[in-house]
Amino acid sequence: MTFHSQFVRITLPLALLVLACSAPMVWADEDALRDKGRKIYLSMCADCHGEKGEGVVGAYESALIGDASLGELTHQITKTMPEGDAEACVGPDAQSVAAFMHYAFYSEAARIRNRPPQITLARLTGNQLRQSLADLYSHFHGVPGYTDERGVKGIYFTGSRWKDENKKIERVDPTIDFDFGNESPGEGIGKEEFYVHWNGSVIAEETGDYEIIVRSTISFTMDFGKLGRTLIDNHVQSGDKTEFREVVRLTAGRAYPFKIDYIQRKRKTEQPPASISLSWVPPHSVEQLIPKRNLIPWTIEPTYSLQTKLPPDDRSYGFERGIAVDRQWDDSTTSAAIEFGIVAADELWPHYSRRNKKIPEENRARLKAFLTEFVETAFRTKLSEETKQLYINQQIAETPDDHEAIRRVVLITLKSPRFLYPQTDAIDSPSQKVANRLALTFYDSIPSDKWLLEKVERNQLQDEKQVREAAWRMVNDFRTRGKTREMLHEWLNVSHFGDITKDSARFPGFDPQLLADMRASLDQFLDDIVWSEKSDYRQLFTADWAYTSDRMAEFYGDQWKPEEAPPGEADKLPRGPGPQQLRKTAQGGEHRLGLLTHPYLMSGLAYTDTSSPIHRGVFLIRYMLGRTLRPPNAAFTPLSPDLHPDLTTRERVALQTSPDSCQVCHTRINGLGFTLERFDAVGRFREIEKDQPINSLGSYITRDDQEVTFQNEQDLAQFLATSDDAHRAFVSRAFQHFVKQPVAAYGPEKLDELTEKFKNSGYNIRALLVEIAVIAAMEPHNAKIAG
Fold first, then answer.
1. Strand partners for 196
2. HSE of 207 in the Cβ direction (CA atoms, 13 Å)?
3. b/e per residue, 340-365, with b = 16+ CB within 10 A?
4. How are the residues of the chain apportioned to helix, strand and coil, as percentages rounded to the nearest 5?
5. Which phi and psi (to 5°) does residue 647 adopt?
């Protein structure tokens, strides 16, 4: 016999759960029950589904796997087995078959028991390659530590150049956006001739192409990434050109130093008014002043960002994996190695040579020392004499040109499996292995920080206490913060939203500028929770405050009004077309429930003109609760509201998903999605639709067969804050994102253990990241890596 033809990952309509979910399922004699179920299954089901539920070609080819609870599975069998004769397996027989299937092959625990996952050998992902090259560069200059200070340092002089005696003002400016006109920029500074030197660093929060925009009516030059690395040269003002644009590819979690020299000179002709602004267009956003939160008021060490574009990595398991090795990957890594070779020869080698003049130049000893340090850092280990001979001495011997020798060494080093496959470190010391894995887990990179390499040299990363101390030092790093932001975006699935658009007739004012404010608001909220002292996961759903702007308050109403700006600060808030400065919301946010009801999330999970309980329900079941759903039976077009003008969105969705074949999954989906119906297509709170009160009742069946009902979004938010299913899903998502391996590969009980530690820590997100890193750093020594 066979299950319902559409049934792959087995779930159950809530209406059929009375027996199973009124109390947790209890089995008197599990072994006897399973044995009975096995006999029934083999006699009635195996012909179509296989002895172990693996599927049968020509019959039912899909494997019988899923995450339905035992009660859900029992009732699905009761209603669908055998196909065409559902009454043949009901009551105790259905219970026994469900018990056998659930234990033998259907459940996640069964699959792990039958085929334990292994740590998979993998190359660097594109992002790991990009981060590793950035740290390989920074190794020779120093890696900047984290700071909370924000803004850009400005030094103002009277006269057209730097002279200490002419320095009049030294301060931290929140942004660079000034219109001095024909007036002096400050007290004691002449209006006809002055010079301003701004220096600082820009924090990139997302990897991608950034368009840097400087608008200036007088001469200026801008260095970026490294002092002396000119990005824009307008030292001699040319004609009427006042706008200058350059595109650079930046890497998330990195800070890039810059300086701007801004000069007003005396002229015999009419003097132009002086103004300047520093803006950018971040990935997936709109032009905006580079905000204070992305600026550091000093020039950090030089930074490198790979400009070569890399192909996307496999995401079929829900996280990036470096498993594809094809022509596209090979070509891109070669291009990256050639690009980095030029930078190493032109920037790193001169810097190293200046700082190591004590090393003699005879027999090119200084060059050999530089290249040895380079290869050892890239390979994450000390070099044997044989390796030195192959990778360094032979290459130097091939050419008398130092730059050519450097490019040769860089090319063969960065194309080597020893660099591209970080797990090929079996011969390394225990401390070196731990450092390798800590850097890969937190930074997606190689160990390049001096303090970390010193611990390796002293063999001080052997026991758990030493590893944990290092992990806590690394968790607050800029690079970890960037990776954490990426993880949260993946968890919320916002990285796949793309351009959110709405019906302009129904929602006037919903434009790219508002959308940019909303995304910045969500990101600032996430950062505040994660990097607060408590770092409490539950506040992601229970916080009654948010970040907002004047533009958001105008569109969303009183619930999103910002606090009053401090005295004297109101005039400094940026205005105009770009995103506005964010401030915390005022008190009284009854319907603001952390990220759950944030308008950016609600807008992304909706159609252009109506809300979408289906999108929201799928998001909740898959991402917030970590449950599985089979793909839809077929692509379908949502019922148009115009066809049923009297139906509410809930009624229309219920009508469209009413067939039994749809209800297999939509009982789960709709039961969660309906709870957010009080938020429309743009995320505005409402209580009435089609002149009817909104019905936001919903429900959910947990993994342990408990039925939970919700009156509205407030009940749902409280549930997500306290639910074991939600905690487990978050922990699993974090582990996969940071380690790039399934958590079960580190032990069948590891996810449960991690979730329990997460709970005991007070749901501290940073403590969770440390725990994940300690596991990734220490446990692979005893784990088998699948080739």
1. 156, 262
2. 26
3. bbebbbebbbeebbeeeeeeeeeebe
4. 45, 15, 40
5. -90, 140
Structure tokens at 457: 């040299």
Place of tokens 């004297």: 568
What pLDDT digit, counting tens, does each position of 86-141 carry? Answer: 778 888 988 999 999 999 999 889 999 999 988 989 999 999 999 999 999 999 99
* pLDDT per position as a tens digit, 545-578: 999 999 999 999 988 999 876 665 544 544 444 5
Return the CATH architecture of domain 14-114.
Orthogonal Bundle (1.10)
Query: Token pair 């190493």 is at which residue?
Result: 344
Own/partner long-range contacts of 748-757 (Cβ < 8 Å, ≥24 apart): 748/109, 748/112, 748/113, 748/116, 750/775, 752/728, 755/724, 755/727, 755/728, 755/731
Regarding the domain with residue range 152-296, which homologous superfamily does it belong to in the CATH classification? Toxin - Anthrax Protective Antigen;domain 1 (3.90.182.10)
Of 76-80, 136-140, 386-390, minimum mean pLDDT range: 76-80
**Shortest CA distance to 489 belongs to which of 519, 512, 510?**
519
For residue 211, report the phi and psi dihedrals to the nearest 5 degrees: -95, 115
Residues ≥6 apart with Cβ < 8 Å to 151: 172, 173, 174, 175, 200, 292, 295, 296, 297
Interval 293-335: pLDDT, tens: 999 999 999 999 999 999 999 988 888 999 989 999 999 999 9
Q: Where are the domains of the chain?
A: 14-114, 131-141+317-474, 152-296, 491-722, 724-781
pTM exceeding 0.85: yes
